[in-house]
Automatic annotation (TrEMBL):
Coiled-coil ranges (or none): 398-425
Annotated ranges, domain Signal transduction histidine kinase internal region: 358-437
Transmembrane segments: 322-343
Keywords: Coiled coil, Membrane, Transmembrane, Transmembrane helix
A Gene Ontology cellular-component term: membrane
Pfam families linked to this entry: His_kinase
Domain of life: Bacteria
SUPFAM superfamilies assigned: ATPase domain of HSP90 chaperone/DNA topoisomerase II/histidine kinase, TPR-like
Protein name: Signal transduction histidine kinase internal region domain-containing protein
GO molecular function, one term: phosphorelay sensor kinase activity
Organism: Aureibaculum algae
């Protein structure tokens, strides 16, 4: 039976390969379709062909590019990876460098900058001398990913590797190069390149709003307020309907910085409201992209099962039924959870009227970031057919999401509920992380009451810092301990890990993120302390001073005892 199936499979593959030429003749002119911006038609044609036969490398190239142009970056990344693997198997270096550039495009569009930097560093070793132009194309993406991870000097050095004159005359180069110059605070030179970029865009009829906004940012740093406001007003006027939400947000972020530095609180608060509206639109857009990517992934699986059906019809039928049932069920659950989250999130935003400016800006971005990452992990489990793990992850995710939604509506929450949320968060991170860690919660002594209320979201950011930045790759026996202590009428939470410690963390981007979390929490505690009329604060130490490894965070929490409970 095994030999019969092997012979049948070989004959099937031979027939598929020999019939490729006649089938490919029926496809319309792909380069012309792409030139005419008929991206969806390219996707429809090649997806249909992919069900019948193996696509050529040129066809995979156009399919990947079309997905990118349609904003379906997750699908583009899948096909870029497929093209890369085929090129490696065939030892086709010429097409391999094209595939690497495609993958870099989708990685930067997905905002996975740290992963993208590492990928570009590894990919750069593949390019040969004759691949100079393709290598310089890679530098466009590499430089921007370094810029977005705040490695400004490295971004500047990478962009200087782009020496091909036609490339350096592109507005894409002049604009991005200006950003790297802004990163290393070469303001005058950055202005020169931005003006050149605006001139190029005007000559080709392109929109100049982003360049005008970047020029305003330079004038803000130079404290030339009038020039900054003039350029921001011009940027808003030049905004068009097709401009991305990210571009619109960048302009209003610069308005916010301008008014904030001018101490114009009224205008700053108005601008912040606009930013929150844009954040909501971005959130809805990204949720739709995730769901669309899941649907497309499902469609790809159907295409694969059609091929398998020719080889073994009965096995395909049972697998197809199970796969459809699992995927559709999970899609329905994700859709319901997403709808619930959007509804709850909008209500929370409407209810918060008197929160400080920095606190409002942080909360408008924190929860969507967590949701997007969780959806990506869940998508990966579905694609890898890890059904049981996906169901377990979804169960824990829904519990945590419910706690986040409930707690975020309240000014004060039960200490027990807040600790449960941290526990669920740690469990989820353990499921998605390659570095497993042990999480332990201990009550050092008896609490004065079971009904202690504390402000929400004070403990979780420091547990997140320990997980994300405390442990290097392949760290063994990682531990995070959370101790609750009540003494002298003070409620103290001690968070400790056995990782690399704060003094050993040389990554500038990570250090800035952790110091920002500490600063915002510290300012928030000061405000709450005045309201509660009790002492509170946060203190971060490297355990090296105690001849131990890791980081020690001491939180003195403001609290109230609910006597009505």
């Amino acid at each position: 039976m095994g030999k019969t199936k092997h012979i049948f499979t070989s004959l099937f593959l031979f027939f598929t390969i020999t019939s490729t030429f006649s089938q490919s003749e029926e496809i319309k002119d792909l380069p012309q379709l792409f030139k005419d911006r008929e991206y969806q038609e390219v996707i429809d044609i090649l997806s249909s062909e992919d069900e019948k036969r193996e696509l050529s490398l040129d066809e995979l190239f156009y399919l990947t590019k079309a997905y990118g142009r349609m904003g379906q970056y997750s699908n583009g990344l899948v096909y870029a990876e497929r093209m890369k693997n085929i090129c490696l198997a065939q030892k086709d270096t010429t097409n391999l460098v094209r595939a690497l550039n495609l993958k870099a495009e989708n990685v930067i569009d997905l905002g996975r900058y740290e992963i993208g930097v590492k990928f570009c560093e590894e990919a750069s070793t593949v390019f040969r001398t004759q691949d100079s132009l393709e290598y310089q194309k890679l530098c466009f993406k590499w430089g921007m990913m370094l810029y977005h991870t705040q490695q400004f000097k490295d971004a500047y050095d990478v962009y200087n590797k782009i020496t091909h004159k036609p490339y350096r005359e592109l507005s894409l180069f002049t604009n991005n190069y200006a950003l790297t110059l802004m990163g290393i605070e070469k303001w005058d030179e950055a202005l020169k390149y931005l003006k050149k970029s605006i001139s190029l865009d005007n000559s080709t009829g392109k929109n100049t709003s982003i360049n005008l906004s970047n020029m305003a940012n330079i004038y803000i740093n130079l404290k030339q307020w009038k020039q900054a406001e003039i350029h921001l007003d011009s940027a808003v006027k030049s905004l068009q309907k097709g401009n991305s939400l990210i571009a619109r947000k960048a302009i209003y972020n610069n308005y916010f910085e301008l008014f904030k530095k001018q101490n114009n609180i009224e205008k700053a608060m108005f601008t912040l409201d606009e930013i929150e509206k844009i954040n909501q639109d971005i959130f809805n857009q990204k949720v739709n992209e995730k769901l669309q990517a899941l649907e497309s992934a499902n469609s790809s699986k159907v295409s694969l099962t059609k091929k398998v059906k020719v080889i073994d019809d009965q096995l395909q039928l049972s697998q197809r039924q199970m796969l459809w049932g699992a995927v559709i069920s999970l899609l329905l659950i994700i859709g319901l959870l997403t709808t619930l989250f959007i509804y709850k999130y909008r209500n929370i935003m409407a209810a918060h009227e008197n929160v400080l400016v920095e606190q409002k800006l942080l909360r408008s971005q924190m929860t969507p970031h967590f949701i997007f990452n969780s959806l990506s992990v869940l998508q990966g489990m579905i694609l890898n057919k890890e059904d049981r793990k996906a169901v377990s992850y979804l169960s824990k995710f829904s519990k945590l999401l419910r706690l986040i939604l409930e707690n975020s509506r309240e000014k004060l929450v039960q200490l027990e509920d807040e600790l449960n949320a941290v526990q669920h968060y740690a469990d989820l991170q353990n499921m998605r992380s390659q570095n497993q860690f042990t999480y332990t919660l201990t009550f050092k002594n008896k609490l004065p009451s079971q009904n202690i209320l504390i402000p929400p979201m004070l403990i979780q950011p420091f547990v997140e810092n320990a997980i994300e930045h405390g442990f290097k790759k392949d760290f063994i026996n990682a531990k995070i301990d959370v101790d609750i202590l009540f003494k002298d009428n003070k409620l103290t939470c001690i968070i400790s890990d056995n990782g690399i410690g704060v003094d050993s963390d040389t990554n500038k981007s990570n250090s800035k993120k952790k110091s920002l979390a500490t600063k915002i929490t510290s300012e928030r505690l000061k405000i709450i302390s005045r309201e509660f009329k009790m002492e509170s604060g946060v203190h971060v130490q490297d355990r090296q001073q105690f001849n131990e490894k890791g980081t020690l965070v001491t939180l003195i929490l403001p609290y109230k005892i609910n006597k009505d409970a």
